[in-house]
Amino acid sequence: MPLDLLSYTVRLTVEVAGKYIRLTTSDECRRAWNIVCCQSFAMTKGRVAPIDWFLRPVHRWVWGDFDRRVRKLLAFAEVETDGGRDILRAAELTPDPLLRRLYLEHAIDELRHGNLFRERGAALLHKRPARDVLFNGTPLPGGHGLDDLRIEGEPDHRLLAFLHVAEKAAAGRFTIYRELVDDDPATRAIFEEILRDEVFHMNYTYTQLTRVLPESYRRQVWLARANRLWKRYGRVVAALTSAIGGAILLVQYFILLPPFAWLAKRAERREPVGWTPIPRDRNDSPNSQY
C-alpha cells in the first residue's frame, strides 16, 4: 500500500498494539505501517494452507511454463480488478464510516494490484516467441476468491469474514508463488509488494470483524471458511461430473454407435442399385392441402 495513498485517505484508522490511533501525518502513517507489516508477517509466517503445500508441484508446473505464467498473471489482473470494484461498492453501501474508509483503501489496493499484474503480463507477452497456440491451459483458478464476492444485501460482519478468509488464503498462496518465480525478479517483486497488502487486508478485516461483532466473530470466520470450502467442493464436483460425462459419451460412441453403423450398412446393401420407378399416380394434382 503506497504511503501517499495511505496518508491521502481521510485519516485512516488502524489498530496498533491493541489501541486505535488516528493517523494525520505521513510520518505517523509510515511508522504505523511499518509496525503493522512487521506484526503481520510474524503472524502469518509458515501459515500456508495444507492444500497449497500439497498442490505445490502443480503450482510449480503452472508457473514453470511461460504461456501459463502469462495466462495466470492476466487472470489475476481480471480477478483483482473485479474484486476492487466490488469492494468499492461495499464502501458505498456500508453505514459504518470507519469501514467505508478501509473499504476504499482496500479497493484502491485491489485495483492497483490488477494494474500491476496486467502490466507485467503484457510485458511478458511482448517477449513471448511466436507460436501457433497462444496459451496453455492451467488447472488452477485465478485470483484468490474475490470472484465469489457478493455485496448487495450482505451485512458488514459477513463481508468482513469473507474478505478475511479470502485474503488469508491469498497471502499463503502468494507466498508460494513468490518462491516459484525466483527466475523472474520483476514478477517476484510484484508478488512481494502485493503480499504485504494482502497481509494488511487480512489483519484489518479480522480486527474490524471483532469490533463489529465481538460476540460471535469466530463463528463468522468459521462460517466463511465452510462456505468457501462448499464452493470449492461444488467446483470439484462440477469438474468431476463433466469428466465422467465426457467419458460416458466416449464409451457410448465406441460401443453403441458401431452396431447402428453396421445395421445401416446392412440396410444399404438391400437397397436396389440405380433409379427407382415412381408410380404414375404420384404426379396427379392434389385436390386438398393435405
Spatial strand sequence of the major β-sheet: 1-2
The chain-level structural class is mainly alpha
Q: Which overall shape is indicated by the principal axes computed on the Cα atoms? A: elongated
Q: At CATH's second level, what is the architecture of the largest domain?
A: Up-down Bundle
Strand content: under 5%
Got a strand count? Answer: 2
For CATH, the homologous superfamily of the largest domain is named as Ferritin, core subunit, four-helix bundle
Which percent bin holds the helix content? over 70%
Main β-sheet description? 2 strands, antiparallel
Rounded to an integer in angstroms, the radius of gyration calculated over CA atoms is: 29 Å
CATH class of the largest domain: Mainly Alpha
Q: What do we call the CATH topology of the largest domain?
A: Ferritin
Low-confidence stretches: 1-31, 33-46
Mean pLDDT: 77
- How are helices and strands ordered from N to C? HEEHHHHHHHHH
Distance between the termini: 78 Å
